[in-house]
Design a protein that fits this description.
The chain has 17 helices and 16 strands. With 474 residues, it is α/β, with parallel strands linked by helices. The strands form 3 sheets. The protein has a 7-stranded mixed sheet with strand order 11-12-13-10-9-14-15, sandwiched between helices. Helix 4 packs across helix 5, helix 5 runs parallel beside helix 7 and helix 8 packs across helix 9.
Length: 474
């Protein structure tokens, strides 16, 4: 079994990570939480900044080119998308980004990590670690597991990370750089050493004994998981049987939706929708997997042609590989949609790389999916149906019904709606979407980007990693 730990933690574990040595690691981790809490948040931010700087330098110097190639092979993403993902790690480690997230997420802000903060006269809060925290990664992107890992460490938790099989090499690489910083005899090195000793990264197959122990028996305080079924249900079942009752911090499977208004800048909207389809091949929780066009069918067809031209250019920059079966599913679905009256826009060579289907009034994908049930969301990479509606309420209704439809089974709802609309229409639609259970309404042009102050799927994720100590004076 692969594992990576700081030097002192490594001595505790020894050569093999087992159920017994994990128990020792958790006991050690509880002591490390006290040490982390004694350090100023600013000191920890300095380590994150240095880690981000070195990670960025390694990428720029080409030292991680082999890693990029390996991740591309494992995830199916082209190397340019993998590189985008890895480059964004430096943004996550930016001290200003972390500070903003903590300031807007914690009660009474960042200061509450370092000291008691008076909320009302004689009443005080302080945020203390709820851990140890066990972070379980899933999916292709390295970002979710790193977001949780950074938040957990910055809130003074001993942090155990089990990355996914797809991104484990990247996570190990990041924490190996942290360990190297901790080996230096500098002020930052000393702080980095304590953070490294407070983090344990390991990979074990889903049926592994250590993973089972962590979920069902261990004294971890929080279990954090981003992912979908069947893994999601298995994590919930396992943790519910743990007699120590750790807190569950779950972020389930969601998807995105795009709404384009005829009065928007349609050139910009076409470019934005094409980018949203290409970036991460529509596999993010924010990626649009269906779109609405508010206007008439002729306008929608013209808009789809614009999107097609943008996709044609982007595909040469971001190539996509599809299996023979994916190609079969794509071509078969195109045929069904065409026979049912959808207007199709496809590559000039009619290849399988991307598809836009313009359909009036209601979806034709539902009928196609009934005949091709393997054409699920993961298989529908760079595929979108553009539903033409005449009014804003109709577009909102499409969003509302999305999670109930068979082609979208497995999702828990809509995370992000990307809007391209004039300001008055934008505000009106955003207000109506408040009743639909969506978590984010943002401009279509940057729906994959996240502000440091944004909640995660309706809540501040950082709060899952702390307990709030309340004190009232006489």
């Amino acid at each position: 079994m692969e594992f990576l730990a700081g030097p002192e933690l490594e001595k505790v574990i020894g050569k093999r990570l087992t159920k017994e040595t994990m128990k020792k690691a958790i006991d050690f981790g509880l002591e490390m939480q006290k040490k982390l809490a004694e350090m100023e948040t600013e000191e920890k931010l300095g380590v994150m900044e240095e880690l981000g700087r070195r990670w960025s330098s390694s990428l720029d110097a080409g030292e991680l080119d082999e890693l990029v190639g390996k991740l591309s092979s494992k995830t199916g993403y082209c190397e340019k998308i993998v590189l985008m993902d890895l480059e964004f790690v430096s943004t996550l480690l930016d001290p200003e980004v972390i500070s903003l997230s903590l300031e807007h997420s914690l009660p009474e802000g960042l200061e509450s990590l370092d000291a008691f903060v008076e909320v009302r006269k004689g009443e005080l809060y302080r945020c203390i670690p709820a851990g140890p925290v066990f972070v379980i990664g899933s999916g292709n992107s390295v970002l979710p597991v790193m977001i949780s890992g950074i938040f957990s460490l910055m809130t003074n938790n001993f942090t155990i990370i089990r990355p996914s099989s797809s991104n484990k090499e990247a996570v190990f690489q990041i924490f190996s750089i942290l360990r190297r910083i901790g080996e230096e005899e500098t002020p930052i090195g000393m702080i980095a050493r304590e953070i490294s000793n407070s983090s344990l990264v390991f990979y074990e197959e889903p049926e592994g004994k250590v993973l089972e122990f962590l979920l069902k028996e261990s004294e971890v305080g929080v279990v954090n998981f981003w992912g979908a079924d069947p893994a999601l249900s298995e994590v919930v079942r396992s943790v519910s049987s743990n007699p120590n009752h750790p807190r569950l911090s779950l972020l389930g499977p969601l998807t995105g939706y795009a709404i384009v208004h005829r009065g928007a800048d349609l050139e910009e909207a076409a470019r934005s929708l094409a980018e949203a389809m290409v970036y991460y091949d529509q596999q993010l929780c924010s990626s649009p997997t269906e779109a609405c066009f508010i206007g008439d069918f002729k306008q929608a067809k013209e808009f789809a042609e614009k999107v097609g031209r943008e996709l044609e250019a982007l595909t040469s920059e971001f190539p996509i590989r599809k299996s023979e079966y994916e190609i079969y599913l794509t071509q078969s679905t195109r045929n069904i949609l065409r026979m049912r009256g959808s207007y199709l826009v496809v590559p000039k060579d009619r290849g399988p790389e991307w598809t836009i289907a313009v359909t009036e009034g209601k979806s034709n994908l539902d009928a196609a999916f009934a005949r091709l049930p393997d054409f699920t969301l993961p298989a529908r990479r760079r595929f979108i149906e553009l539903i033409v509606v005449s009014s804003e309420p109709e577009a909102v209704e499409r969003v509302k019904m999305q999670k109930e439809r068979e082609p979208f089974k497995g999702i828990m709802g809509i995370q992000t709606v990307g809007l391209a609309a004039p300001r008055a229409a934008f505000d009106s639609i955003a207000s109506s979407l408040a009743e639909c259970g969506v978590y984010r309404v943002v401009p279509l042009k940057d729906m994959h980007l996240r502000s440091p102050i944004e909640p995660f799927d309706g809540r501040h994720l950082v709060r899952d990693f702390v307990n709030i100590l309340y004190v009232r004076r006489e």
